[in-house]
Design brief:
The complex is a heterodimer of chains A (310) and B (348). By secondary structure, chain A is an all-alpha fold. Chain A has 2 domains: 2-71, no CATH class; 90-309, MetI-like (MetI-like fold, Orthogonal Bundle), CATH 1.10.3720.10. Chain A has 13 helices and no strands. In chain B, strand 9 (186-190), helix 7 and strand 10 form a beta-alpha-beta unit. In chain B, helix 6 (168-179) packs parallel to helix 7. By secondary structure, chain B is of the alpha/beta class. Chain B folds into 2 domains: 1-41 and 53-102 and 235-272 and 280-348, P-loop containing nucleotide triphosphate hydrolases (Rossmann fold), CATH 3.40.50; 110-183, no CATH class. In chain B, the strands form 3 sheets. Chain B has an 8-stranded mixed sheet, with helices on both faces. The chains are: A mainly alpha (310), B alpha/beta (348). At the A-B interface, helix 8, helix 9 and helix 13 of A face helix 3 and helix 6 of B.
Chain lengths: 310, 348
C-alpha cells in the first residue's frame, strides 16, 4: 500500500510539473504587457521586476527561474494589485474555496450513493421515477440558475418566518456554507445518482449476491456487505474528475453567493493579465486537484483489494 | 396423478419435490420453464438432474431455494418437503434457516460467484455468523478449518486472501467450504464443474464424494455431462422441456434407458473406443418453445419412435421397473415393442 501511494505521489508531481510548464508557456504566448498599462510603472520598478523574473533574459532562463521559485513555494508578487503576494491571495482565499468544494463533493458523493441505491432498490416504482426525474433536472439546469432560484427560495422562507433562517449570501458560519455547497454539488450528485443506480442494478443481479442469498444472509446484511461496497466502485472512480468539475463550477457559485473564494481572483487576474496571479493560482489549483485525485485513488485502493495489490 | 413419490411412500425421503411448476413473465409472454417436476432425494445419496441447456434443471432447484427473482418468476404449483415439512416460500423450518443451514448450494462459475471485495475466509465465516451466531473470530477460525477440509493448502494464509488471488478450482473448493459450513443435510451443486478444466473437474468431484462419505449429506447434482453422472450419481432424473422424462437408479438410466431422449443423449456421447466410429451422433432438431409448450410430448418432433398419440397427448409417468419410470407412450402396456436399444422392461 505504501508503494502504491508513493507511486501515485510521484506521478502526481510529474502532472503538476506539466501543468506548471504548460501554464508558463501559454502565458508567454499571450499578447500584451502588464507593465505597460495606464498606471505607468516607473523605470526603477520595471527594472526591479525584470531583474527578479529575468524578464530581459531568454524564455528558457525565465522558465528555470520560474520553476525554481515555485519549487520554493514562491509564486511571486501580483503585477496588478499593490503590495499583494500571490501566496497571500492563496492563503486568504483558498481555504474558503476548498471548504466549499470539499463540502460540495461530500454532499454529492453521499447523496449520489444514497439516492442511487434507493432508486435501484425501488426500480420501476414511484420513488425511482420521482428521483430519476429530479436527476434529469439536476443535470440539465445550470448551477447559476439553481443558485439564483435557491436564493429566491431562502428569501421567501426568511420573510415567511420573519427572521433570518438561512443567510442569502456571504460567508462565515456553517449556515452560510450549506446552500452554496448543495447548489455546487447538485449536478455532480445527479450524475453520481445515475451511475450508482446502474451499478447497483448490475450488482443486484450478480452471481455473488445470489451466492450470498443461498447462504441465507439477511437482505440488510447482503446490501451492506456485498452490494454497497462493490456498487460504489464506479462512483469512486469518477469522483476524481468530479472534484475538478465542482471546483471549477465553484467560480460561478462563489460570485452568486458573494463568497470570498479564490475563483474571483482567478477570473480577475485573467482579465487584468496579471501573470503571476494567473500562473500561481493555476498551478496551485492544479496541484490541489491532483492531490484530491490521488486521495480518491487511495480510497479506491482501500475498498477494492484488486487495485491495492497489483 | 402418479408421481415419483408414489413408489417411495413407505420410506419417506429426505427431500420430496412434487409437481413443481415455475413460470416467468417476460416481454415476449409467459415462459413455462418448469412444468410439473417430481423427484425425491434420499439421505446420503447423490441425485443427478440431467438435461440440456434451458430444460429447467437450474430453475427447479433455484425456485426451491427461493433464489429465482419473483417477479418475474412465479411458482404456480407443487410442493417441496424437506423431512416432510414444506419449504417452498419459507425461510425457516423446524427452527432453522433453510438456505445455508439445512441446504447448501454451489454454482457453475466460481470466478463470479464469490464477492470480489471480501476475503475468502470472511465469506466462508459468514453463514456461521448468520446461522449460528458465532463471533467473527470464532467463525473465521472455523473457516480456516473448513478450507483445510476442502484440501486447500496453507488454509490460514489463504483465508486472508481475496477471490482474485485464487484459481478457478481453488475458488470452487472455497465455495464448497462455504456451502458445507453449517453442515447441511443437502448440498445442491448446480453444474459445479462446467467452468473448470477436466483435471480440476475430477478433483472437485472426488472432493464432493469424500465430503459426502464423511458427513453423510445428500447431493443434488445438476449437470449435462453424462460422464459426471455415471461417476457420481445413485439416482438420476432426466429432464426435457421443463419435465422429468425418465428417472431411476443410475444403472437403470444407463443400461436400461427407457425414454428415447435418454437414449439419444447416451448415443450422442463421444467415445474413444477404437472399434466404434468417431462421428458424433447429435439429436436432430431443437427443444420446443416454452412460450407455447406443446400439448403432446415435448420430445415428439425429434423422436425417432414418435407415434400419432405423442403429438396430441402428453404421456403419463409410466413404470418401467422398480423405482424406474419413464414419461413415454412406448412404455404403455398397449404400445408396440420397438426392436431397438430402447428398454421396455415391465411390458415385455
Amino acid at each position: 500500500m505504501m508503494w502504491f501511494i508513493g507511486k501515485r505521489l510521484v506521478q502526481g508531481l510529474i502532472t503538476v510539473w506539466f501543468i506548471a510548464t504548460a501554464t508558463f508557456f501559454a502565458m508567454h504566448n499571450v499578447p500584451g504587457d502588464p507593465l505597460l498599462n495606464d498606471r505607468a510603472t516607473t523605470a526603477i520598478i520595471r527594472a526591479n521586476l525584470e531583474a527578479k523574473y529575468g524578464l530581459d533574459k531568454p524564455v528558457t532562463t525565465q522558465y528555470f527561474i520560474y520553476l525554481n521559485n515555485i519549487a520554493h513555494g514562491d509564486f511571486g508578487i501580483s503585477f496588478a494589485q499593490e503590495n499583494r503576494e500571490v501566496n497571500d491571495i492563496i492563503r486568504e482565499h483558498f481555504p474558503v474555496s476548498a471548504i466549499l468544494g470539499i463540502l460540495a463533493v461530500v454532499i454529492a458523493a453521499v447523496g449520489g450513493i444514497l439516492w442511487g441505491s434507493l432508486t435501484a432498490l425501488y426500480r420501476n416504482r414511484l420513488p425511482d421515477y420521482i428521483i430519476m426525474f429530479l436527476v434529469i433536472l439536476g443535470i440539465s439546469v445550470p448551477s447559476f440558475v439553481i443558485a439564483a432560484l435557491s436564493q429566491l427560495g431562502i428569501v421567501t422562507i426568511n420573510s415567511l418566518l420573519g427572521r433570518t433562517f438561512l443567510p442569502v449570501a456571504g460567508w462565515g458560519t456553517i449556515s452560510h456554507m450549506l446552500v452554496p455547497a448543495l447548489v455546487l454539488g447538485l449536478t455532480t450528485m445527479a450524475y453520481l445518482t445515475r451511475l450508482m443506480r446502474s451499478s447497483m442494478l448490475e450488482i443486484v443481479n450478480s452471481d455473488f449476491v445470489r451466492t450470498a442469498k443461498s447462504k441465507g444472509v439477511p437482505p440488510a446484511r447482503i446490501f451492506a456487505r456485498h452490494q454497497l461496497r462493490n456498487a460504489v466502485l464506479p462512483v469512486i472512480t469518477v469522483l476524481g474528475p468530479s472534484i475538478a468539475a465542482i471546483t471549477t463550477g465553484g467560480f460561478v457559485v462563489e460570485i452568486v453567493f458573494a463568497i470570498p473564494g479564490l475563483g474571483r481572483f482567478f477570473v480577475e487576474a485573467v482579465q487584468q493579465l496579471d501573470y503571476t496571479v494567473i500562473m500561481g493560482t493555476t498551478v496551485f489549483y492544479g496541484a490541489f486537484l491532483v492531490f484530491m485525485v490521488i486521495l480518491v485513488d487511495v480510497i479506491y485502493g482501500f475498498i477494492d483489494p484488486r487495485v491495492r495489490m497489483n | 396423478m402418479t408421481t415419483a413419490a408414489t413408489g417411495l411412500q413407505h420410506t419417506p425421503s429426505l427431500l420430496e419435490v412434487e409437481d413443481l411448476a415455475v413460470e416467468f413473465s417476460t416481454y415476449g409472454g409467459i415462459v413455462r420453464a418448469v412444468r410439473g417436476v417430481s423427484f425425491a432425494v434420499e439421505r446420503g445419496k447423490t441425485m443427478a438432474i440431467v438435461g440440456e441447456s434451458g430444460c429447467g434443471k437450474s430453475v427447479t432447484v433455484q425456485a426451491m431455494m427461493g433464489l429465482t427473482p419473483m417477479p418475474p418468476g412465479r411458482i404456480t404449483s407443487g410442493s417441496a418437503r424437506l423431512n416432510g415439512v414444506e419449504v417452498l416460500g419459507r425461510n425457516i423450518i423446524n427452527g432453522k434457516d433453510i438456505r445455508g443451514s439445512q441446504i447448501g448450494m454451489i454454482f457453475q462459475d466460481p470466478m463470479t460467484s464469490l464477492n470480489p471485495t471480501m476475503t475468502i475466509g470472511d465469506q466462508i465465516a459468514e453463514p456461521l455468523q448468520v446461522h449460528r451466531g458465532y463471533s467473527h473470530k470464532r467463525a473465521f477460525a472455523e473457516a480456516i478449518e473448513l478450507l483445510s477440509i476442502t484440501k486447500i493448502p496453507e488454509a490460514a494464509k489463504r483465508a486472508r486472501q481475496y477471490p482474485f488471488e485464487f484459481s478457478g478450482g481453488m475458488l470452487q473448493r472455497a465455495m464448497i467450504a462455504m456451502a458445507i459450513a453449517c453442515k447441511p443435510s443437502i448440498l445442491i451443486a448446480d453444474e459445479p464443474t462446467t467452468a473448470l478444466d477436466v483435471t480440476i473437474q475430477a478433483q472437485i468431484l472426488d472432493l464432493l464424494q469424500d465430503l459426502q462419505k464423511e458427513t453423510g449429506m445428500a447431493i443434488i447434482l445438476i449437470t449435462h455431462d453424462l460422464g459426471v453422472v455415471a461417476r457420481m450419481a445413485d439416482d438420476v432424473a432426466v429432464m426435457y422441456a421443463g419435465k422429468v422424462v425418465e428417472q431411476g437408479g443410475v444403472d437403470d438410466i444407463f443400461y436400461r434407458s427407457a425414454h428415447p431422449y435418454t437414449l439419444g443423449l447416451k448415443l450422442a456421447m463421444p467415445t474413444n473406443d477404437p472399434s466404434k466410429q468417431h462421428k458424433l451422433n447429435p439429436i436432430e432438431g431443437s427443444p420446443p418453445d416454452l412460450f407455447a409448450p406443446p400439448i403432446g410430448c415435448g420430445y415428439c418432433p425429434r423422436c425417432p419412435y414418435s407415434m400419432k398419440i405423442c403429438d396430441v397427448k402428453d404421456p403419463d409417468i409410466l413404470p418401467v421397473g422398480k423405482k424406474h419410470e419413464s414419461r413415454c407412450w412406448l412404455q404403455h402396456p398397449q404400445a408396440i415393442t420397438v426392436p431397438d436399444e430402447l428398454y421396455c422392461g415391465e411390458k415385455a
